[in-house]
Amino acid sequence: MTQMSIWTDLTGVEHTLRYVDAGGLRTRALQAGTGEPVVFLHGTSGHLEAFVRNLPAHAAAGYACHAIDMVGHGYTDGIDEPYRIPRYVEHVLAYLDAIGAERAHFVGESLGGWVAGRLAADHPERVGRLTLVAPGGTVANPEVMARIKTSTRLAVETDDIDLTRKRLHLLMHDPAKDVSEELVQVRHDIYHRPDFVRRVGNLLCLQEIENRREDLLTPEQMARITAPTLIVWGAQNPFGDIPEAHRMNESIPGSRLEIFGECGHWPQHEHSERFDKLNLAFLGEDA
To answer: What's the whole-number average pLDDT of the chain?
Structure first.
């Protein structure tokens, strides 16, 4: 099938790709639209392009969209220490301060959902509504952790673009439909930035059992989340089974769970139209 550029999705949408000083870290951000801020947070070894399909609908609906690269991801500065959950949260809060936002809605996918969930538990005054997309961080599954660590290290430390392609294919239920060669090239270029290669161990620290256990999003923390919460899960999520989604749903008071069929780890990308309709209805419930 013919695949258009990932940037074709932004045709006709006024947007800016810029760098923001967030607590001293040069942070890449894709900004579009005006209104209440919605911050989009990607997954482990990911980058803001994970949300390019979603920004047009959210911007058109009257939201100021901010898709950012988190600490040491994409083209955002890394740090010479393990990238732990409190440090990710600190960076996201610094980004809110930098754009002058007292609070924002959050859409967090995988690692981004873990970070957003922890932020909502610890800083409820900064969070409006919370959308957790195939969120990680509630369990420590050695098999899944090993798969993430091994596939990412191979793709980063070996100059073979097919390894990057395989890493992206892991995420999708239907890679032929949802993994374009351009997306592969974007991630390959990021993976082979010298600073990214040098600090890949810092990025993968949460795939080590001792770090992960300390940083897990616990039932007690989830019980403290007061933000209205939507959880979106793929029925074929390779990094987490459906019972994990139900446990999270039960732990976050008043949360709602939606499971997408024929879907892997990127519901917002694999079923972007359905996700956008669902999430915009959720965000608009206060209006």
So the answer is: 96
